[in-house]
Design brief:
Blueprint (H helix, E strand, L loop, with lengths): L3 H25 L4 H18 L5 E6 L2 E4 L2 E2 L7 H11 L3 E4 L5 H12 L12 E4 L26 H16 L6 H17 L16 H19 L4 H13 L9 H5 L7 H7 L1 H9 L7 H9 L20 H20 L7 H9 L7 H12 L17
Antiparallel strand pairs: 1-2, 1-4, 2-3, 4-5
Helix pairs in contact: 1-2, 1-4, 2-4, 5-6, 5-7, 6-7, 6-8, 7-8, 7-13, 8-12, 11-12, 12-13, 13-14
Length: 392
């Protein structure tokens, strides 16, 4: 039986051979003995891993390279090399499956080592791609946006209470109830389908004890509403809704007194807050039903539009579009539901704060979208719903 240490050693070796193979083919060409040897060693390491795994996946999220869902940049000195090559070639995931051949790996490494803008192609046993806002099937022939049958959360309090229950149980050590959070997202989308103005669906300030649940609800509402109004498909609305519900999940595992004093922290306590995206990401990696967009949003929702913020990057870059959306509505709700409702700021300050930081902290296009929603916050917005995918 393979131990955790054995698995880690094999995975590190595979990452090392992947980096060596790309470098060898780049420097010497595919027929050079060093390149041939590197490809052969990579085949061996992947065969060892695939003997006990259905597939071997490498996923790039921000600056972190994950191997089989485990963060690897701190474990392997070669992981940052692969991350840089993935980023340069626009690759966010590579999956190797049983039966992968030396010829397939050689072509993959040639693509990875190239310096032009050519596309890295998938092979019969190698799948390469990006984490995208992709369509997927939604419901069955009788499940439409007009209602969720018996699975309804008709009031704001119902939804917030369910979110609170899910979070409380998760912190206590129970499994995360992803299905219930998906139900919240579906109910919010159902509501937005009837009244497209997301401001009409927000939960009000309800005290410090329920703030995390209220905030998650409102960020999800605004995220789904913005995506819906932009013509996003149902699958994208739902994935982004779950991402928004989970964006601050890492904060649940911080000491309560630290969260209460968040704005006044100094010294080592600040690092606890800065670390919550990593904590949240690690917690969610155990749940394959959590959409990849949620992992991205959790990891990058404090990464600013100009590449500053946290997690701190070796080289500044813009966050993923999903993270930029969650960042914008997260900031907006902090101002609107928390500060305005508690009379910490004036109403005019909500959008002026956002607009004063567009292009640096938040995406200017999203600030403009939120300005449009803000100006119509007391009005009904009528728009045609995005089409449902055909039933299975």
């Amino acid at each position: 039986m393979r131990t955790e240490g054995d698995w880690e050693a094999v995975a590190q070796a595979a990452v090392a051979e992947l980096a060596a193979g790309a470098t060898s083919l780049r420097l010497y060409g595919s027929s050079h003995p060093r390149a041939v040897l590197a490809v052969g060693r990579l085949v061996t390491q992947l065969e060892i891993m695939l003997a006990t795994e259905a597939e071997v996946s490498l996923v790039l999220l921000g600056d972190e390279l994950f191997v089989q869902g485990r963060p690897f940049s701190r474990l392997s000195p070669n992981a940052p090399v692969i991350a840089r090559r993935f980023r340069r070639r626009g690759v966010e995931h590579a999956i190797f499956r049983p039966g992968v051949t030396e010829a397939e790996l050689r072509l993959f490494l040639q693509d990875l080592a190239a310096t032009d803008d050519s596309v890295i192609e998938s092979r019969p046993h190698i799948q390469v791609g990006k984490v995208e806002l992709a369509e997927r099937e939604f419901g069955g022939p009788d499940e439409t946006r007009k209602g969720l049958g018996r699975h309804r959360l008709p009031t704001v309090r119902d939804r917030v209470s369910l979110i609170q229950e899910c979070f409380d149980e998760f912190v206590s050590g129970a499994a995360l109830r992803v299905g219930d959070l998906q139900l919240v997202a579906r109910t919010l989308l159902d509501g937005v389908g009837k009244e497209a103005n997301p401001m009409r669906h927000l939960a009000p300030w309800d005290g410090e004890e329920r703030w995390h649940a209220v905030h998650s609800h409102n960020v999800a509402t605004l995220t789904i509403g913005c995506t819906y109004l932009a013509g996003g498909d149902v699958a994208s609305c739902l994935d982004l809704g779950v991402a928004a519900l989970l964006h601050d999940i890492g904060k649940l595992f911080l000491p309560r007194d630290v969260l209460v004093r968040e704005a006044e922290l100094a010294g080592d306590e600040v690092e606890l807050i800065l670390d919550h995206p990593r904590v949240g990401l690690e917690k969610l990696l155990a749940y394959p039903q959590v959409p990849p967009l949620a992992l991205i949003a959790v990891c990058e929702h404090h990464l600013h539009f100009n590449g500053t913020g946290y997690p701190r990057l070796r080289r500044a870059r813009r966050p993923h579009p999903a993270a930029r959306l969650v960042t914008a509505v997260d900031t907006f709700d902090q101002l609107y539901t928390y500060r305005l409702a508690r009379h910490i700021i004036e109403e005019d300050a909500v959008m002026s704060w956002m607009e004063g930081r567009q292009g640096t902290v938040v995406d200017p296009a999203l600030v403009r979208a939120l300005r449009e929603i803000w100006e119509h916050r007391d009005q009904t917005i009528e728009t045609a719903p995005p089409p449902l995918p055909p039933p299975a």
